[in-house]
Design goal:
About 70% of the residues lie in helices and about 0% in strands. It has about 300 residues and is mostly helical. Among the domains are: about 55 residues, no CATH class; about 90 residues; about 60 residues. The radius of gyration is 36 Å and the shape is flat. GO terms for molecular function: transmembrane transporter activity.
């Protein structure tokens, strides 16, 4: 597949995860017949963690889309975090965690996640000159960071989960089809003819036979339901596109009507000019360009 796709093979995240899982598994198993050491156990937990992604591919695609969306708003988080961190560093300079040698942005980040430590931070009396300032900044921090910004990030992360779920399923199918096609074209024709499946029969009313299929249908949903949900969510977009197309056609029809009226005015003007010059004419009522005007006196 690497030779087939070229450099695009190295731009896919799932390929890197697959190679990392394979290498970590080999490191964990080597050397054989020996007890694993520290590095072997480290490679073992990496292989065990990454090996689960193939079985939860839909949710991994959903997770990656949520991460990409969150990365777009990291700049807002960093701006607020640095602003409050600098303010706490000035007003709470004698408090551990906000001193000059401490990494006080991490302290502010932990406070945003819920670890306020209010008693030890704001009631010790170590920052009496800026006590009122500290309380004002604390009130603004509690109002902006844990409440407003965290709810904003949660809303972005959640979004329309059904749409993301159906879209992730379609994306997984498209990725699987692309990989299957790239692997298939590398096989000889004789092998393809031997293993080619000419037909596939689907029984929609037949109940699911295995327990795993039933569990998968409950957790993920059947293929027909996911595809139908994906198509239903796209109906709104199709309606918007249809309305836009209708408005464009209506605008063009009005422009054509104006051009037709202008053409009639020009035809009337040409008729008046011909009558004034005592010229015989034969004027086409549909096109001025195809009109014929002949003079009475000749050429």
């Amino acid at each position: 597949m690497c030779f087939t796709t070229g450099w695009k093979y190295f731009t896919a995240l799932d390929n890197w995860l697959s190679w990392t899982t394979i290498i970590a598994t080999i490191v964990f198993l080597l050397p054989f017949n020996n007890l694993p050491c520290l590095n072997n156990w480290r490679a073992g937990w990496i292989a065990a963690a990454l090996g689960c992604f193939s079985s939860i591919g839909i949710y991994f695609i959903m997770f990656s889309e949520v991460i990409i969306t969150l990365l777009k708003v990291v700049l807002i988080l960093c701006i607020f975090l640095m602003a409050f961190s600098s303010a706490f560093n000035i007003t709470l300079a004698n408090t551990p965690g906000f001193k000059d040698r401490d990494v006080y942005p991490l302290t502010s980040l932990s406070m945003m996640l819920g670890e306020f430590n209010y008693i030890d931070t704001f009631t010790t009396g170590a920052n009496d000159p800026f006590a009122i300032d500290g309380y004002c900044i604390m009130f603004l921090f509690f109002l902006v960071m844990p409440l407003a910004l965290m709810n904003f990030l949660t809303g972005i992360a959640v979004g329309d989960i059904e749409t993301v779920r159906a879209g992730a399923y379609i994306s997984k199918i498209s990725i699987f089809i692309d990989k299957s096609y790239l692997m298939e074209i590398r096989f000889p024709r004789s092998v393809q003819r031997k293993w080619q499946k000419l037909k596939h029969t689907v029984y929609p009313n037949k109940p699911e036979g295995t327990v795993w299929k039933k569990v998968k249908k409950v957790l993920v949903g059947s293929e027909e339901e996911l595809i139908k949900r994906y198509l239903d969510t796209g109906k709104a977009d199709h309606v918007d596109e249809t309305d836009e197309l209708k408005s464009l056609i209506k605008k063009q029809s009005s422009q054509i009507t104006k051009l037709h009226d202008l053409q009639k005015q020009q035809q009337d003007l040409i008729k008046q000019m011909a009558d004034h010059l005592h010229m015989d004419y034969r004027l086409d009522s549909f096109s001025v360009a195809e009109s014929e005007i002949t003079t009475r006196a000749g050429h």
